[in-house]
């Protein structure tokens, strides 16, 4: 299927196969993906990295690094709603194959997890819940997607985390800001905020992805306070990592580094660190034509390096020159719900 990008100087050699609709469950698309994936020849050799740890040998800490060895399975449960049972089925599969973490990308275009208390700033919990629900409906309509349910409840997430722990799997939450934020942007507009946003391109299904303009504005302040609530929740539930993703960051005149860093990235990464967790971001923002790599050099942010395109700083530069910790990710391991073939 592809050659895994192996980075000898990373925190941990990770095979973060990303899935949407994999390995059984209650929805039709999940079962279709289950059949398709299982029909691939030598599936385990494609998904399980052989050193260290194989499908027969659990992953072990890397000698001399002082860091744990982690293998992450990324589930895009923002663009597509997954039931509790479907997520538990995936946890069963990854536990059998010696993964250590599942990353639940519940905030990614859609916004699929609501806390019991969603009060933010001067907005009541019910107001925020209703706004996010409306945001999901707007996202669903744009994508011609009609799930029976849109969001996991806190009780359901509590159960997922407990179930994962029983299988030896830890949960990494992902709430993407300021990009891939369609439902969140719609929610902020519904709450009466002035939000400057724009499409930043299309995803692999051909639907536009939206970012809000990060800066000293009400939308950014709301987003920061909202993400902090989720940091608090996942900290109390044992997560050691929190991925703010940072898609569409600092790569255009729309989302500027000078506005992004002090108003969004630094407040969130600092809060995550102060909570005893490790902040994560994708390498989208670390481009040749901006100074984000310098501005965030001592931030403690771990870079999930997924693409090596010409526009991006090379992994060697980020790791060796700027001393970032790198998580080995690769876009060729991503599967998109509804797209019935692997990406090139």
How would you describe this structure to a colleague?
The protein has 10 helices and 11 strands. The protein has helices at 28-38, 43-47, 84-96, 125-142, 154-166, 182-190, 218-236, 257-274, 292-295, 315-321; strands at 18-19, 72-75, 101-108, 110-111, 170-177, 197-202, 208-212, 241-245, 278-282, 302-305, 326-328. Strands 1, 2, 3, 4, 5, 8, 9, 10 and 11 form a 9-stranded mixed β-sheet that branches. A two-stranded antiparallel ribbon has the order 6-7. Helix 3 (84-96) runs parallel beside helix 5 (154-166) and helix 4 packs across helix 6. The longest helix is centred in the middle third of the chain and has 19 residues, at 218-236. It is globular. Mean pLDDT is 81; it is low at 1-34, 36-59, 61-66 and 340-344.
Topology readout:
Layout (H helix, E strand, L loop, with lengths): L17 E2 L8 H11 L4 H5 L24 E4 L8 H13 L4 E8 L1 E2 L13 H18 L11 H13 L3 E8 L4 H9 L6 E6 L5 E5 L5 H19 L4 E5 L11 H18 L3 E5 L9 H4 L6 E4 L9 H7 L4 E3 L16
Parallel strand pairs: 1-2, 2-3, 3-5, 5-8, 8-9, 9-10, 10-11
Antiparallel strand pairs: 3-4, 6-7
Helix pairs in contact: 3-5, 4-6, 7-8
Q: How many helical stretches?
A: 10
Order of helices and strands: EHHEHEEHHEHEEHEHEHEHE
Main sheet, how many strands, which sense, barrel? Answer: 9 strands, mixed
Supply the helix-strand structural class. Answer: alpha/beta
- Note the gap between the termini: 9 Å
Contiguous runs where pLDDT drops below 50 for at least 5 residues: 1-34, 36-59, 61-66, 340-344
- Percentage of residues in DSSP E strands: 15-25%
**Helicity range of the residues?**
25-40%
| Mean pLDDT level | 81
Record field, number of beta strands: 11
Rounded Rg: 19 Å
Question: Which overall shape is indicated by the principal axes computed on the Cα atoms?
Answer: globular
């Amino acid at each position: 299927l592809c050659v895994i990008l192996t980075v000898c100087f990373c925190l941990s050699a990770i095979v973060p196969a990303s899935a949407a609709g994999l390995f059984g469950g209650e929805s039709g698309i999940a079962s279709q993906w289950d059949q398709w994936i299982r029909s691939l020849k030598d599936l385990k050799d494609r998904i399980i990295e052989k050193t260290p740890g194989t499908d027969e040998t659990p992953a072990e800490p890397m000698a001399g690094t002082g860091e744990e060895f982690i293998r992450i399975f990324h589930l895009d449960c923002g663009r597509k709603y997954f039931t509790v049972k479907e997520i538990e089925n995936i946890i069963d599969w990854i536990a059998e194959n010696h993964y250590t973490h599942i990353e639940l990308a519940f905030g990614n275009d859609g916004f699929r997890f609501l806390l019991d208390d969603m009060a933010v700033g001067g907005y009541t919990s019910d107001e925020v819940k209703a706004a996010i629900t409306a945001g999901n409906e707007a996202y669903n309509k744009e994508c011609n997607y009609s799930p029976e349910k849109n969001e996991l409840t806190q009780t359901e997430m509590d159960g997922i985390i407990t179930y994962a722990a029983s299988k030896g799997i830890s949960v990494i939450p992902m709430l993407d800001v300021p990009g891939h934020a369609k439902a969140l942007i719609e929610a902020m507009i519904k709450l009466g905020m002035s939000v400057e946003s724009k499409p930043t391109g299309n995803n692999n299904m051909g639907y536009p992805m939206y970012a809000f303009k990060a800066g000293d504005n009400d939308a950014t302040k709301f987003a920061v306070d909202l993400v902090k609530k989720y940091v608090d929740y996942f900290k109390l539930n044992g997560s050691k990592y929190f991925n703010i993703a940072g898609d569409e960051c600092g790569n255009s005149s729309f989302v500027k580094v000078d506005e992004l860093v002090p108003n969004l990235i630094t407040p969130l990464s600092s809060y995550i660190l102060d909570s005893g967790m490790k902040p994560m971001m994708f390498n989208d923002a670390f481009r040749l034509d901006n100074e984000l790599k310098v501005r965030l050099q001592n931030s403690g942010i771990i870079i999930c390096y997924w693409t090596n395109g010409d526009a991006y700083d090379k992994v060697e530069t980020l790791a060796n020159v700027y001393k970032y910790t790198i998580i080995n990710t690769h876009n060729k391991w991503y599967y998109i719900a509804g797209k019935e073939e692997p990406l090139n």
